Amino acid sequence: xxxxxxxxxxxxxxxxxxxxxxxxxxxxxxxxxxxxxxxxxxxxxxxxxxxxxxxxxxxxxxxxxxxxxxxxxxxxxxxxxxxxxxxxxxxxxxxxxxxxxxxxxxxxxxxxxxxxxxxxxxxxxxxxxxxxxxxxxxxxxxxxxxxxxxxxxxxxxxxxxxxxxxxxxxxxxxxxxxxxxxxxxxxxxxxxxxxxxxxxxxxxxxxxxxxxxxxxxxxxxxxxxxxxxxxxxxxxxxxxxxxxxxxxxxxxxxxxxxxxxxxxxxxxxxxxxxxxxxxxxxxxxxxxxxxxxxxxxxxxxxxxxxxxxxxxxxxxxxxxxxxxxxxxxxxxxxxxxxxxxxxxxxxxxxxxxxxxxxxxxxxxxxxxxxxxxxxxxxxxxxxxx
Length: 385
Fold this sequence. Notes:
With 385 residues, the protein is mainly α. It has helices spanning 2-23, 28-31, 33-47, 61-79, 89-111, 125-155, 160-166, 168-177, 181-188, 190-208, 221-244, 251-280, 288-316, 343-346, 349-364; strands at residues 332-335, 372-376, 383-384. It is built from 15 helices and 3 strands.
Protein backbone atom coordinates (compact mmCIF):
# COMPACT_ATOMS: atom_id res chain seq x y z
CA UNK A 1 0.00 0.00 0.00
CA UNK A 2 2.80 2.42 0.91
CA UNK A 3 4.56 1.72 -2.39
CA UNK A 4 1.32 2.20 -4.33
CA UNK A 5 0.54 5.55 -2.71
CA UNK A 6 4.13 6.67 -3.23
CA UNK A 7 3.81 5.60 -6.86
CA UNK A 8 0.75 7.80 -7.34
CA UNK A 9 2.62 10.76 -5.89
CA UNK A 10 5.65 9.91 -7.96
CA UNK A 11 3.51 9.77 -11.11
CA UNK A 12 1.55 12.94 -10.48
CA UNK A 13 4.55 14.97 -9.28
CA UNK A 14 6.29 15.48 -12.64
CA UNK A 15 2.98 16.22 -14.40
CA UNK A 16 1.77 18.73 -11.81
CA UNK A 17 5.26 20.19 -11.55
CA UNK A 18 5.37 20.70 -15.29
CA UNK A 19 1.94 22.34 -15.23
CA UNK A 20 3.00 24.71 -12.44
CA UNK A 21 6.16 25.71 -14.29
CA UNK A 22 4.17 26.32 -17.47
CA UNK A 23 1.57 28.41 -15.61
CA UNK A 24 3.93 30.32 -13.30
CA UNK A 25 7.68 29.74 -13.02
CA UNK A 26 10.12 27.26 -11.50
CA UNK A 27 9.65 28.58 -7.96
CA UNK A 28 6.02 27.38 -7.98
CA UNK A 29 7.11 23.76 -7.50
CA UNK A 30 8.54 24.76 -4.12
CA UNK A 31 5.75 27.10 -3.00
CA UNK A 32 3.10 24.43 -3.65
CA UNK A 33 4.55 22.40 -0.78
CA UNK A 34 3.53 25.05 1.76
CA UNK A 35 -0.25 24.41 1.58
CA UNK A 36 0.40 20.67 1.25
CA UNK A 37 2.47 20.73 4.44
CA UNK A 38 -0.13 22.77 6.29
CA UNK A 39 -2.87 20.36 5.20
CA UNK A 40 -0.81 17.42 6.45
CA UNK A 41 -0.18 19.17 9.75
CA UNK A 42 -3.89 19.86 10.21
CA UNK A 43 -4.82 16.27 9.34
CA UNK A 44 -2.26 14.95 11.83
CA UNK A 45 -3.49 17.17 14.64
CA UNK A 46 -7.15 16.33 14.09
CA UNK A 47 -7.02 12.63 13.15
CA UNK A 48 -3.86 11.02 14.56
CA UNK A 49 -4.02 9.74 18.12
CA UNK A 50 -1.15 10.81 20.34
CA UNK A 51 1.16 8.06 21.57
CA UNK A 52 4.35 7.96 23.59
CA UNK A 53 7.08 5.39 23.85
CA UNK A 54 8.05 4.88 27.52
CA UNK A 55 11.47 3.73 26.30
CA UNK A 56 12.00 6.64 23.91
CA UNK A 57 15.60 7.33 22.98
CA UNK A 58 17.37 10.64 23.29
CA UNK A 59 18.36 12.54 20.19
CA UNK A 60 21.94 11.73 19.20
CA UNK A 61 23.04 15.27 18.32
CA UNK A 62 26.73 14.37 18.07
CA UNK A 63 26.10 11.53 15.66
CA UNK A 64 23.72 13.63 13.59
CA UNK A 65 26.28 16.44 13.32
CA UNK A 66 29.12 14.11 12.29
CA UNK A 67 27.00 12.27 9.73
CA UNK A 68 25.65 15.50 8.25
CA UNK A 69 29.12 16.98 8.03
CA UNK A 70 30.52 13.89 6.30
CA UNK A 71 27.73 13.82 3.73
CA UNK A 72 27.99 17.57 3.14
CA UNK A 73 31.73 17.41 2.48
CA UNK A 74 31.40 14.33 0.26
CA UNK A 75 28.56 15.76 -1.83
CA UNK A 76 30.16 19.18 -2.20
CA UNK A 77 33.51 17.67 -3.12
CA UNK A 78 31.90 15.59 -5.88
CA UNK A 79 29.64 18.34 -7.22
CA UNK A 80 32.43 20.91 -7.45
CA UNK A 81 34.64 18.69 -9.64
CA UNK A 82 33.03 20.62 -12.50
CA UNK A 83 35.11 23.64 -11.46
CA UNK A 84 37.92 21.97 -9.51
CA UNK A 85 39.95 19.00 -10.75
CA UNK A 86 40.00 15.75 -8.83
CA UNK A 87 43.58 16.43 -7.72
CA UNK A 88 42.98 20.03 -6.69
CA UNK A 89 43.42 21.10 -3.09
CA UNK A 90 39.72 22.00 -2.89
CA UNK A 91 38.49 18.56 -3.95
CA UNK A 92 41.03 16.61 -1.90
CA UNK A 93 40.32 18.72 1.19
CA UNK A 94 36.57 18.11 1.09
CA UNK A 95 36.85 14.42 0.22
CA UNK A 96 39.45 13.98 2.96
CA UNK A 97 37.19 15.78 5.43
CA UNK A 98 34.34 13.47 4.44
CA UNK A 99 36.47 10.40 5.17
CA UNK A 100 37.66 11.81 8.50
CA UNK A 101 34.16 12.82 9.63
CA UNK A 102 32.75 9.49 8.49
CA UNK A 103 35.34 7.59 10.50
CA UNK A 104 34.68 9.80 13.53
CA UNK A 105 30.96 9.13 13.15
CA UNK A 106 31.47 5.36 13.24
CA UNK A 107 33.70 5.56 16.30
CA UNK A 108 31.25 7.89 18.06
CA UNK A 109 28.27 5.64 17.29
CA UNK A 110 30.11 2.53 18.47
CA UNK A 111 30.65 4.13 21.90
CA UNK A 112 27.31 5.95 22.25
CA UNK A 113 24.72 4.17 24.41
CA UNK A 114 21.82 5.51 22.30
CA UNK A 115 23.28 5.87 18.78
CA UNK A 116 21.37 7.33 15.89
CA UNK A 117 22.76 4.45 13.81
CA UNK A 118 22.83 1.15 15.74
CA UNK A 119 25.89 -0.52 14.22
CA UNK A 120 24.81 -3.94 15.44
CA UNK A 121 22.12 -3.92 12.77
CA UNK A 122 24.82 -4.36 10.17
CA UNK A 123 26.06 -7.58 11.75
CA UNK A 124 23.04 -9.14 10.07
CA UNK A 125 23.89 -9.86 6.47
CA UNK A 126 20.33 -9.64 5.18
CA UNK A 127 19.86 -6.14 6.60
CA UNK A 128 23.25 -4.90 5.40
CA UNK A 129 22.69 -6.07 1.85
CA UNK A 130 19.19 -4.59 1.79
CA UNK A 131 20.63 -1.18 2.71
CA UNK A 132 23.34 -1.49 0.07
CA UNK A 133 20.68 -2.43 -2.49
CA UNK A 134 18.73 0.72 -1.61
CA UNK A 135 21.84 2.88 -1.95
CA UNK A 136 22.77 1.43 -5.33
CA UNK A 137 19.30 1.44 -6.86
CA UNK A 138 18.34 4.93 -5.74
CA UNK A 139 21.69 6.29 -6.90
CA UNK A 140 20.82 4.92 -10.32
CA UNK A 141 17.27 6.29 -10.18
CA UNK A 142 18.44 9.78 -9.16
CA UNK A 143 20.69 9.85 -12.21
CA UNK A 144 17.86 8.78 -14.48
CA UNK A 145 15.47 11.41 -13.16
CA UNK A 146 18.04 14.17 -13.56
CA UNK A 147 19.67 13.38 -16.88
CA UNK A 148 16.69 12.03 -18.81
CA UNK A 149 14.54 15.02 -17.83
CA UNK A 150 17.23 17.44 -19.03
CA UNK A 151 17.71 15.38 -22.18
CA UNK A 152 14.10 15.72 -23.28
CA UNK A 153 13.88 19.39 -22.35
CA UNK A 154 17.27 20.73 -23.47
CA UNK A 155 18.08 18.34 -26.32
CA UNK A 156 14.69 17.27 -27.68
CA UNK A 157 12.91 20.55 -26.94
CA UNK A 158 10.10 19.17 -24.77
CA UNK A 159 8.22 21.59 -22.55
CA UNK A 160 8.20 21.05 -18.79
CA UNK A 161 4.66 19.70 -19.01
CA UNK A 162 5.51 17.33 -21.88
CA UNK A 163 8.51 16.05 -19.94
CA UNK A 164 6.30 15.47 -16.91
CA UNK A 165 3.84 13.43 -18.98
CA UNK A 166 6.70 11.39 -20.45
CA UNK A 167 7.46 10.00 -16.99
CA UNK A 168 4.04 8.33 -16.88
CA UNK A 169 5.50 5.59 -19.10
CA UNK A 170 7.65 4.65 -16.10
CA UNK A 171 5.31 5.53 -13.24
CA UNK A 172 2.27 3.65 -14.53
CA UNK A 173 4.12 0.29 -14.62
CA UNK A 174 5.44 1.06 -11.13
CA UNK A 175 1.92 1.70 -9.84
CA UNK A 176 0.55 -1.43 -11.51
CA UNK A 177 3.28 -3.76 -10.24
CA UNK A 178 3.85 -2.53 -6.67
CA UNK A 179 0.44 -3.64 -5.26
CA UNK A 180 1.30 -7.21 -6.25
CA UNK A 181 4.81 -7.16 -4.78
CA UNK A 182 3.65 -9.06 -1.69
CA UNK A 183 2.15 -11.83 -3.81
CA UNK A 184 5.32 -12.06 -5.87
CA UNK A 185 7.35 -12.44 -2.70
CA UNK A 186 4.95 -15.06 -1.37
CA UNK A 187 5.26 -17.09 -4.57
CA UNK A 188 8.94 -16.70 -5.47
CA UNK A 189 10.61 -15.40 -2.30
CA UNK A 190 11.93 -11.91 -1.64
CA UNK A 191 15.48 -12.73 -2.78
CA UNK A 192 14.39 -13.75 -6.28
CA UNK A 193 12.09 -10.76 -6.61
CA UNK A 194 14.91 -8.35 -5.71
CA UNK A 195 17.36 -10.06 -8.08
CA UNK A 196 14.97 -9.94 -11.05
CA UNK A 197 13.63 -6.48 -10.22
CA UNK A 198 17.09 -4.92 -9.95
CA UNK A 199 18.12 -6.70 -13.15
CA UNK A 200 15.16 -5.26 -15.06
CA UNK A 201 15.80 -1.80 -13.63
CA UNK A 202 19.46 -1.97 -14.63
CA UNK A 203 18.62 -2.99 -18.19
CA UNK A 204 16.11 -0.15 -18.37
CA UNK A 205 18.71 2.39 -17.25
CA UNK A 206 21.17 1.06 -19.84
CA UNK A 207 18.54 1.68 -22.52
CA UNK A 208 18.81 5.41 -21.79
CA UNK A 209 22.53 5.20 -22.53
CA UNK A 210 21.59 4.48 -26.16
CA UNK A 211 19.73 7.78 -26.64
CA UNK A 212 21.30 10.22 -29.09
CA UNK A 213 20.64 13.62 -30.60
CA UNK A 214 18.08 12.28 -33.07
CA UNK A 215 16.53 9.48 -31.02
CA UNK A 216 12.69 9.42 -31.02
CA UNK A 217 10.76 9.27 -27.79
CA UNK A 218 9.71 5.67 -28.52
CA UNK A 219 13.32 4.60 -28.11
CA UNK A 220 13.15 5.58 -24.45
CA UNK A 221 9.85 3.77 -23.75
CA UNK A 222 11.43 0.33 -23.10
CA UNK A 223 13.78 1.93 -20.60
CA UNK A 224 10.94 3.71 -18.82
CA UNK A 225 8.90 0.50 -18.70
CA UNK A 226 11.71 -1.71 -17.39
CA UNK A 227 12.71 0.81 -14.71
CA UNK A 228 9.09 1.09 -13.55
CA UNK A 229 8.53 -2.66 -13.37
CA UNK A 230 11.94 -3.27 -11.80
CA UNK A 231 11.59 -0.69 -9.04
CA UNK A 232 7.93 -1.52 -8.47
CA UNK A 233 8.80 -5.13 -7.68
CA UNK A 234 12.24 -4.77 -6.05
CA UNK A 235 11.68 -1.87 -3.64
CA UNK A 236 8.91 -3.49 -1.53
CA UNK A 237 10.88 -6.76 -1.49
CA UNK A 238 14.05 -5.00 -0.29
CA UNK A 239 12.03 -3.37 2.47
CA UNK A 240 10.56 -6.74 3.48
CA UNK A 241 14.00 -8.34 3.70
CA UNK A 242 15.42 -5.47 5.75
CA UNK A 243 12.55 -5.30 8.22
CA UNK A 244 12.46 -9.09 8.52
CA UNK A 245 16.04 -9.09 9.78
CA UNK A 246 15.38 -6.82 12.80
CA UNK A 247 13.28 -7.41 15.91
CA UNK A 248 9.85 -5.86 15.61
CA UNK A 249 10.31 -3.64 18.67
CA UNK A 250 13.21 -1.94 16.82
CA UNK A 251 11.40 -1.70 13.51
CA UNK A 252 11.08 2.08 13.69
CA UNK A 253 14.83 2.62 13.97
CA UNK A 254 15.55 -0.01 11.32
CA UNK A 255 13.08 1.61 8.93
CA UNK A 256 14.65 5.02 9.52
CA UNK A 257 18.11 3.69 8.73
CA UNK A 258 16.82 2.04 5.56
CA UNK A 259 15.19 5.28 4.43
CA UNK A 260 18.41 7.15 5.17
CA UNK A 261 20.28 4.69 2.95
CA UNK A 262 17.91 5.61 0.14
CA UNK A 263 18.46 9.34 0.64
CA UNK A 264 22.23 8.96 0.88
CA UNK A 265 22.29 6.87 -2.27
CA UNK A 266 20.27 9.48 -4.15
CA UNK A 267 22.33 12.47 -3.01
CA UNK A 268 25.81 10.98 -3.30
CA UNK A 269 24.91 9.00 -6.40
CA UNK A 270 23.65 12.04 -8.29
CA UNK A 271 26.73 14.04 -7.31
CA UNK A 272 29.02 11.25 -8.50
CA UNK A 273 27.12 10.71 -11.76
CA UNK A 274 27.22 14.45 -12.44
CA UNK A 275 30.99 14.40 -12.05
CA UNK A 276 31.23 11.44 -14.41
CA UNK A 277 29.10 13.20 -17.01
CA UNK A 278 31.24 16.33 -16.78
CA UNK A 279 34.44 14.33 -17.17
CA UNK A 280 33.09 12.35 -20.14
CA UNK A 281 31.81 15.38 -22.07
CA UNK A 282 34.11 17.09 -24.54
CA UNK A 283 33.07 20.52 -23.29
CA UNK A 284 30.27 22.36 -21.56
CA UNK A 285 27.18 20.30 -20.85
CA UNK A 286 25.03 23.19 -22.05
CA UNK A 287 25.79 22.09 -25.63
CA UNK A 288 23.47 19.27 -26.79
CA UNK A 289 26.18 17.01 -28.22
CA UNK A 290 28.32 17.34 -25.09
CA UNK A 291 25.33 16.72 -22.87
CA UNK A 292 24.45 13.52 -24.74
CA UNK A 293 28.02 12.26 -24.38
CA UNK A 294 28.01 12.98 -20.66
CA UNK A 295 24.55 11.50 -20.16
CA UNK A 296 25.54 8.27 -21.89
CA UNK A 297 28.52 7.83 -19.60
CA UNK A 298 26.40 8.58 -16.53
CA UNK A 299 23.68 6.14 -17.60
CA UNK A 300 26.21 3.38 -18.21
CA UNK A 301 27.47 3.78 -14.66
CA UNK A 302 23.93 4.12 -13.26
CA UNK A 303 22.87 0.94 -15.05
CA UNK A 304 25.91 -0.83 -13.64
CA UNK A 305 24.89 0.27 -10.12
CA UNK A 306 21.43 -1.26 -10.47
CA UNK A 307 22.89 -4.46 -11.93
CA UNK A 308 25.36 -4.55 -9.04
CA UNK A 309 22.41 -4.57 -6.63
CA UNK A 310 21.03 -7.60 -8.46
CA UNK A 311 24.35 -9.45 -8.31
CA UNK A 312 24.94 -8.46 -4.67
CA UNK A 313 21.57 -9.88 -3.65
CA UNK A 314 22.07 -13.05 -5.68
CA UNK A 315 25.53 -13.73 -4.23
CA UNK A 316 25.30 -12.26 -0.74
CA UNK A 317 21.71 -12.58 0.43
CA UNK A 318 21.02 -15.85 2.29
CA UNK A 319 19.02 -18.16 0.00
CA UNK A 320 15.50 -18.55 1.27
CA UNK A 321 15.68 -15.62 3.74
CA UNK A 322 12.95 -14.76 4.03
CA UNK A 323 11.59 -17.56 1.85
CA UNK A 324 8.12 -16.07 1.75
CA UNK A 325 8.56 -12.79 3.58
CA UNK A 326 9.00 -12.37 7.30
CA UNK A 327 5.29 -12.73 7.91
CA UNK A 328 2.78 -14.85 6.10
CA UNK A 329 0.81 -12.85 3.58
CA UNK A 330 -2.68 -11.65 4.29
CA UNK A 331 -3.23 -13.46 7.59
CA UNK A 332 -5.00 -12.12 10.65
CA UNK A 333 -4.04 -13.76 13.96
CA UNK A 334 -5.82 -13.45 17.28
CA UNK A 335 -3.66 -13.67 20.40
CA UNK A 336 -5.42 -14.30 23.72
CA UNK A 337 -3.95 -14.14 27.23
CA UNK A 338 -2.59 -17.48 28.40
CA UNK A 339 -2.61 -19.02 24.95
CA UNK A 340 0.44 -19.57 22.81
CA UNK A 341 0.81 -19.41 19.04
CA UNK A 342 -0.54 -22.15 16.76
CA UNK A 343 1.43 -25.42 16.68
CA UNK A 344 2.78 -24.69 13.22
CA UNK A 345 4.41 -21.51 14.51
CA UNK A 346 5.96 -22.80 17.75
CA UNK A 347 9.07 -24.08 15.96
CA UNK A 348 9.63 -20.86 14.02
CA UNK A 349 12.07 -18.63 15.96
CA UNK A 350 11.19 -15.53 13.92
CA UNK A 351 7.51 -15.94 14.70
CA UNK A 352 8.32 -16.56 18.38
CA UNK A 353 10.25 -13.25 18.54
CA UNK A 354 7.33 -11.43 16.95
CA UNK A 355 4.79 -12.94 19.36
CA UNK A 356 7.00 -12.15 22.33
CA UNK A 357 7.16 -8.51 21.22
CA UNK A 358 3.39 -8.08 20.91
CA UNK A 359 2.69 -7.27 24.61
CA UNK A 360 5.41 -4.60 24.57
CA UNK A 361 3.96 -3.05 21.43
CA UNK A 362 0.52 -3.07 22.97
CA UNK A 363 1.89 -1.44 26.12
CA UNK A 364 3.50 1.33 24.06
CA UNK A 365 0.14 2.00 22.42
CA UNK A 366 -1.74 1.95 25.76
CA UNK A 367 -3.83 -1.09 24.79
CA UNK A 368 -5.30 -3.22 27.60
CA UNK A 369 -3.70 -6.63 28.20
CA UNK A 370 -6.56 -8.48 26.56
CA UNK A 371 -7.28 -10.03 23.22
CA UNK A 372 -5.45 -8.23 20.41
CA UNK A 373 -5.87 -8.57 16.69
CA UNK A 374 -2.71 -8.42 14.65
CA UNK A 375 -3.14 -7.64 10.96
CA UNK A 376 -0.15 -8.79 8.95
CA UNK A 377 0.69 -6.77 5.87
CA UNK A 378 1.76 -8.72 2.79
CA UNK A 379 3.70 -5.95 1.08
CA UNK A 380 6.20 -4.74 3.65
CA UNK A 381 6.50 -7.81 5.89
CA UNK A 382 5.55 -6.15 9.16
CA UNK A 383 2.40 -6.03 11.27
CA UNK A 384 0.07 -3.39 12.63
CA UNK A 385 -1.33 -3.55 16.14
